Amino acid sequence: MKKEAFPEGIKLVHTEAMVMRWGDMDAMMHVNNTVYFRYMEQARINWIETWGVGTTADNVEGPVIANASCQFRRPLKYPGSVEVRVFAGQIGRSSLPTYYEIRRTDDPETVYATGDALFVWISNATGKPAAFPDTVRQRLTA
Questions:
Q1: Are 90 and 13 in contact (CB under 8 A)?
Q2: Where does the pLDDT of residue 125 fall: very low under 50, low under 70, confident under 90, or very high at 90 and above?
Q3: Helix, strand, coil proportions of the chain in percent (round to 5)?
Q4: What is the pTM of this model?
Q5: Rounded average pLDDT over 100-104
Q6: I need a labelling partner for 65 at 20 to 30 A (CA). Which of 78, 88, 100, 115 fits?
Q7: Got the DSSP string for 14-59?
Q8: Under a CB-based contact definition with an 8 Å cutoff, are residues 65 and 13 in contact?
Q9: DSSP state, 133?
Q10: Sign of torsion, CA 51 53 54 55?
Q11: What is the SS3 assignment for 134?
């Protein structure tokens, strides 16, 4: 999939390489569909940790995922490594759309899956959306 399939104006914000594990495969001998979401999640969490806001449950505020999807293009098969590319869209008051590409590191020209997830910044006390803190907003718009 070419980047044109994503909305215009997105920017590459993080790249993460991960080793596929033998246990990531299912009975059909390819990486199970749920694992693609884990790959995207791990890349997303490692990117969030660069914001300096922490990712623990005792934070007063933080990001949650409002929805997530994955379009499976080609099956991934063990052994190998994947590269997850994280792209960010236009930040709103309390939301941020993100987009993902999953590729094999030994086949970087082929996109094996694409995905998206909508972040919503929430107050952990109320469970309701809250404005992104200025420090995070500055980082995301830099």
A1: no
A2: confident
A3: 20, 40, 35
A4: 0.90
A5: 98
A6: 78
A7: EEEEEEPPGGGB-TTSSB-HHHHHHHHHHHHHHHHHTTTS--STT-
A8: no
A9: P
A10: negative
A11: helix
Identify the residue whose tokens are 């490692």: 46
20: tokens are: 């596929």
Q: How many domains does the chain have?
A: 1
With H, G, I as helix, E, B as strand and everything else as coil, classify residue 5: helix
Q: Which residue range(s) make up the domain with 119?
A: 7-141
Distance CA 70, CA 88 (A): 16
Q: Using omega within 30 degrees of 0 as the cis cutoff, is the peptide bond preceding 108 cis?
A: no
pLDDT of residue 51: 85
**Structure tokens of 25?**
């495969």
Instruction: Supply the CATH number for residue 118's domain.
Output: 3.10.129.10
